[in-house]
Amino acid sequence: MKRLLTYILLFTLVAAQFSCDKQLSAPPANARVEGTAITNQQTAQIALNGAYYRFANVNNNNVTDWASHQVTSGMLSGMMGYGFGAMQEESNDMANGGYGSLLWSQSYLLLNAANGVIQGINAVADNAFIGNKKNELLSESRFLRAYAHFRLLIYFGEWYKPNSAYGTLLRDQLSTLGNIPKARSNVADSYKFILEDLDFAIANGPASNSNYYATKWAAMALRMRVLICRGQTNDYAEVINLGNTILQQGPYELESNLKDLFYVKGLNSKEVILGVKPQPNQEAFYYILSRAYYPAQSSLYVAKKAFKDLLQNDPRSSWMIGPATPYQAYSPNTYYFTKYIAYGGATSQLTETSYAIRLTEVYLLQAEAIIRSGGDLATAKDLIKTVMGKAGVTDFSAVDNATTVDQLLLQNYYEVCRNLTGEDAIEWLTLLRLPFDTVKQLKPTIINQFQYIYPVPLTEFESNPAFGDQNPGYSK
């Protein structure tokens, strides 16, 4: 953790010198004390670009590395796997899972960068900004902070138990050696803090922005994701209302052919609410996010039989699933995962693009909220079938024949998997919102709910003795 803290502080210094151009195009050239870095609107934008640099998780090779977002949840849900022998995540062995410490460190790096920007902007007089620009920059920073806190909550806190004491470690200040000791918050307070940041981002966020930067619409969609997980009395109604606002007033529309989004348009698609832009020349690297490892598609991160079976008789199977991988002895029943790149296709900036929030998720979250709130099942079915139709599906009998709440929730989950696997933990969270008996049937390696989350990394307890207890089911 001491090494992590060093990295956090170093990044905060480095982020202040990020390119003034609103492009994630190059890492910062040198360092500067963050307390003096933000003095006006221009330097605030530079610092915010540095926080987005952390959101995109640009590594030392100048590559946007979103694999932990895409692959972790795919493995945990059973849709994706590792092509050279199963990883612990595939059997939901969270105690030994290799992605836990990575998810923790990446999230706190983003969190600290966002806090540095918020702190710096708040210290500058309002008249140093044009119009509402100060609040807009703060809204983007608070969106990033909410995103980081929520990511920590869903992977390391009992987000599915609203009265649990095991929430996330909330950080609302730039980390220094003097304020590291701090106790984790409970789940209720964790949700409250996250939602307050999103409220600010919705009220003050820009209505238009490049879709690899946050807007008030992205904040609405993320709020929907947070509320559906909290699942309290009024949350479902708010999810439905937020969905209506985005669908009726937002500048987005479903791609008429889902394949075009990944294979033709990328961030040019009007469906993308928030994407992750690759770095220049990223496609030249052999370990890139499209899993298109040299010389073409990858055998490293693969589709599993469960994903292939789910797409049986679905038109998406023709382009999301490739042939069997050549390493069946190590990982049997695995197939090339071709959602981002065609089998044998060439890598490009398009194949390297990642997606944090798409309009498809808004439709399916709204459908789930309608189902869970006792709303009209026919309305929920129409939302699900609209999404399916944009993917080329013409047989809606499974959805039409779902007559109970549990049956339709299951059909909604299936469509989430078919459409959103390998994007940003969406399929994993949707699985865990199903009844526990259903979860165990769909993913038999889950036998206890403590497998829903990772243990807090042991290094946190070493450097932060005030943190509190380890997650249930795990040991310090």
Structural commentary:
With 476 residues, the chain is mainly alpha-helical. Among the domains are: 1-72 and 100-205, Serine Threonine Protein Phosphatase 5, Tetratricopeptide repeat (Alpha Horseshoe); 278-352, no CATH class. It has helices spanning 2-15, 41-55, 67-77, 100-122, 133-156, 187-204, 216-230, 235-249, 258-265, 305-310, 317-320, 359-372, 377-390, 397-400, 405-420, 426-432, 436-442, 458-463, and strands at 80-82, 272-276, 301-304, 321-324, 334-337, 354-358. Strands 1-3-5-4 form a 4-stranded antiparallel beta sheet. Mean pLDDT is 90; it is low at 1-35 and 291-296.
CATH T-level fold name of the domain at 1-72 and 100-205:
Serine Threonine Protein Phosphatase 5, Tetratricopeptide repeat
What CATH first level of the domain at 1-72 and 100-205 would be assigned? Mainly Alpha
Termini Cα gap = 15 Å
Biggest sheet strand line-up: 1-3-5-4
Overall pLDDT: 90
Strand content: 5-15%
Instruction: List unreliable stretches of 5+ residues.
Output: 1-35, 291-296
Task: Please estimate the helix content.
Answer: 40-55%
Question: Architecture of the domain at 1-72 and 100-205, according to CATH?
Answer: Alpha Horseshoe
Global geometry: globular
Order of helices and strands: HHHEHHHHHHEEHHEEEHHHHHHH
Secondary structure: number of strands: 6
Question: Biggest β-sheet, characterized?
Answer: 4 strands, antiparallel
Q: What is the structural class?
A: mainly alpha
Rg calc: 21 Å
**Tally of contiguous helical segments:** 18
